[in-house]
Amino acid sequence: MIMQPPFTVNQLLDLKGRLAGTDVRVSGILHYAFEDVAIYHWPKSESRPEYESSIWLETGSGSLRFDDEACLSMNGKLVVVEGVLVLPDERFRGCGHMSLWPAALLARTLERV
Hints:
The protein contains 3 helices and 6 strands; from the N terminus they run βααβββαββ. By secondary structure, it is an alpha/beta fold. A 5-stranded mixed β-barrel has the order 2-3-4-6-5. Strand 2 (23-33) and strand 3 form a beta hairpin.
């Protein structure tokens, strides 16, 4: 199987309506902090205001979760995340903490570039 190159965060957000519910790969800068577990657009010079260039990361329910130590070591680094793109529930204006992010990624893999 040939792996498709990852989307940038901005590319993925521009296509979110079409790609919602599908498996995607996205590259960007990992933010792994209290109330800010997300991937942000790279390069920063192309970032949009506020949270418009970032995607909330989550692992879903059950026993799967992020490895804190591994994620903290990648915080602020360029990463590629694979998972399913999720749009906000229609009762909220966004995803993640305080509904600040325009989309979420139900992450399956996270690796440093």
